[in-house]
Amino acid sequence: MTTARRQGAAEPLGSEKTQGAEGALPAQGPRGADERPGVAKRLGVVGVFLVAGAVTIVIAAVHITQGTSSVGLFDLLGQGDEAMRVLLASRLPRLLAGVAVGVALGASGALLQAISRNPLASPDTLAVSSGAYLAVVAAAALGISLPTLPSGGLAFLGGLAAAGLVMAASAGGRSGTTRLILAGSAAALAFTALTNLMMILFQQETTGLFAWGSGALTQKDLSVLTQIGPIIVLALAAGILLGPRLDVLGLGDDGATVLGVNVRRVRFWVTVLAVLLATAAVVIAGPVGFVGLCAPVIVRLAGRWLPALLAHRILIPLSAMAGVLVVLAADVSLRALFGGQSGVDVPPGVVTALIGAVVMIYLARRHRDGGPARRPPGIRSAAHRSRAVFTVFVVAGTVLLAGAVVLGMLLGDTFLRTGDVALWFQGRTGMGITFVLDQRYPRVLAAVLAGAALAVAGTVIQAVSRNPLAEPGVLGITSGAGVGAISVLSFAPAAGIWAVTGAAGLGAVVSFALVYGLAWKGGLSSDRLVLMGFAVASAGTALTVLIIVETDPWNTATALTWLSGSTYGRTPLQLLPVAIALALVVPLVVAQRRELDLLSLDEHTPRILGVPMEPARLTALAGAVLLAATAVSAIGVVGFVGLVAPHAARALVGGRHTRVLPVAALLGALLVSLADTLGRTVIAPAQIPAGLVTAMLGTPYFVWLLWRSRAGQES
Questions:
Q1: Number of neighbouring beta carbons within 10 Å of residue 249
Q2: What is the pLDDT of residues 201-237, one digit of tens each?
Q3: Quick one: DSSP state of residue 88?
Q4: What is the DSSP string of 628-664?
Q5: Are 219 and 342 found together in one domain?
Q6: Counted domains in the chain
């Protein structure tokens, strides 16, 4: 009985062991002396709730005075007809939506962190919001108009499937923070790619869903809130009732089992409750980013001074209140800085995502590296390939790539024959075929060059970070390049290719410098590097949405196409930057092949063998940044290539970079080339951006890779 009561509070953020037990038996002594600490704790907890409630009321009072109309505080106090109409029709629904979303996401984040025992778990990092959003957009794209509750049920199924995939692939989050983040980010990337595809193909049916996808609190009336609100209240109450079992679960699976907790059953039902809360928030306002991460962190930080707050029966409702504060404060700040109309045009989720990125950077700075035990898959399984096997794969890859290039020249909205291409080379084709091939060959070359650049960049990043799930997008490189390029496309649409390339390069360099600088803490931690990259990438995505909705919120197809990776409209001049980058960086990386081999092993071996760690890392990563930035400027943002190509190369020719680099480059070029050709052909004359095709092709491989590496960790 004493042991069971000792579980008290969950482990505070950044601590090495569990905090003292709130419910432990008192020490021997006078009764009054023993009771004072318990009374003080109870008064402290009540005081925290009272302060949080008072701050919430103040922010809500400010929130309700803001809007697009001229109705102010004194008008509301006077209770005129016009003021009451504005209050009931617009401001009160928006306020209540913010409260409901904050409660749902704050509690959901606390529940997910409890079952994963991971302070970075949230509806965003577990791709729950992305899965729910995909389900909602899919229904809209198919022309299915559902009432609120069935729509919520559909979103729940999408969110539950996403959470199940990420939790299973990352061993419930207990196999490491970095692994959880990478699994969630890759799954979110795949879901986002599918969502963008539907919005591109079904523009009329999904009009307005792009901005809504970052969290929009605007409500037509209270009908959605009255239907979803009771679900949030019941799920929150159920989560609080499970609080004591979550405290016991914090002792570890074995300890919880000994104390009579059915771990699997508790984890299942808590996951269902967390996903239900997160999807309820999506139905009300769309995916509001990172509230589920920030709210529990705020409470856990307060728990340093008052450990009683860390007991889950207190932590969960207090996280819900903190979520309300985050959402309302973000909305109030947005409209206070940019005016009432910004509350309509700019999703508050953009602000919460930026706040969440800062919180994640704080958490990542406190994170301890998982150690040098990790090795990229493939080193142990294919390390003894002979030179003959390597030669065979290089020749085969070259032949396949040549075939893909020919195929890319033949297929598209107009089908050609090889004879047409041969005559075109000789300058003997008619005007129609000449026009088609003149437009087509820059696209084919752009796909080949960008695919090779992304594959080489991914190979370098995986070696330097010693993380087999890393790729350029994880380090914020492609996101930063996207912010730079989309800024030029939005604010100066007449700018030339060199302006776009320069802006993309500048954005990539700034993002990389930020990630590298923040990850440096008496040395460069591989785990910290990845976590910082994820935070900066999230901030970059939020800024991209902000730029798009501020410049032209109703015409997002062009930006979406570019952000999804498209070769449409490419010219030979636009290929020059990525060609130059490949010519400069590839020889540099090849010269560093020995250093990359050693860096991919562990932290100590390179130092023992005299490798200058930081200069070698910085040089290699700088080359990867240049390759990724120019690839983004050439075809936009393409995911999974930098992840899949290096893995496939290691599986084929082993782990030595002198062999991995050329094979990865061939595979990356082949993958993007085939994806581009497929996207230009299957629904011609409409087109699917190459980045969306690579995401759809890469997602199954990524899921298999996660399972494979998980099995390797457990064996």
A1: 25
A2: 777 777 667 666 667 777 777 888 888 999 999 999 9
A3: I
A4: HHHHHHHH----SHHHHHHHHHHHHH-S-HHHHHHHH
A5: yes
A6: 2
Residue 27 lies in a domain: no
Helices (H), 411-525: 418-425, 431-465, 477-491, 497-519
Judge if 354 and 397 occupy the same domain: no
Please identify which residue in the block is written with the tokens 């930026």: 354
Q: CB of 109 within 8 A of CB of 295?
A: yes
CATH number of the CATH domain containing 110 = 1.10.3470.10
The pLDDT of residue 399 is above 90:
yes
- Give the Cα separation of 333 and 330 in Å (integer): 5
| CA–CA distance, 324 with 295 (Å, rounded to integer) | 9
Q: Which residues of 575-606 are buried (b: 16+ CB within 10 A; e: fewer)?
A: bbbbbebbeebbeebeebbebbbbbbbbbeeb
431-465 helix and 657-681 helix, angle to the nearest 10 degrees? 140
Look at residue 381 in the predicted model and tell me its pLDDT: 42
The rounded Cα 621 to chain-centroid distance in angstroms is 21
What pLDDT does residue 234 have? 95
* Most trustworthy range by pLDDT among 370-374, 478-482, 546-550: 478-482
Q: Cα(140)–Cα(158) distance, rounded to whole angstroms?
A: 14
**pLDDT at site 68:** 66
Tell me the two tokens of residue 223: 């009908």
**Residue 192 belongs to what domain range?**
2-15+42-366
> Per the domain annotation, does 372 fall within a domain?
no
Give the separation between CA 94 and CA 331, rounded to whole angstroms.
10
Q: Is the pLDDT of residue 198 over 60?
A: yes
Model-level pTM?
Answer: 0.74
Q: What is the pLDDT of residue 155?
A: 84
